[in-house]
Every structure is written in structure tokens, then in C-alpha cells.
Sequence to fold (79 residues):
Amino acid sequence: MKKSINIYAPDKSNLMEIATLEAKDGNLVIKGKIMGSMPMTAVVRPEEARKIVSLLNWKLVLFLLGFLFRKPTGTIPNK
Fold:
């Protein structure tokens, strides 16, 4: 069974499928498909990953911790 992560657009279409996450040369490499067919490889450097911290607040950190343990809803909210 192939494992992947799907990220959806507000119109509920599949925006991105992330197939693999791997460490390579000190970076995070993300491989997958955009819009269901266009292959992509993205590289996240450590300095960019550290910037994620500036986007977080306590409310979001608490949400993310609980988010990992929620039951699947089967729905994608509209924006």
C-alpha cells in the first residue's frame, strides 16, 4: 500500500500529493505531484525550516498537537 499525504485546494481538488520526505545533504527533500500529474521535488533548507517557528503561536501549537490525534472527518472545509 502506497502511503502519501494529500493537500487540498479550497475547491476540494487535490492540489499536491507528497509521496516522500527524506534527508539529503543536510536538507529536507519533498517529492510528489502537483495537480495530480506534474512531478515535483522541493528542497527545504535549514534556515527556511527555522522560519516556520515565526509562523507559530501557542494556539496553533496546541491545535497541531491535538490535530495528530483527531478522527478523520472525511470532509474538506471551504475557505
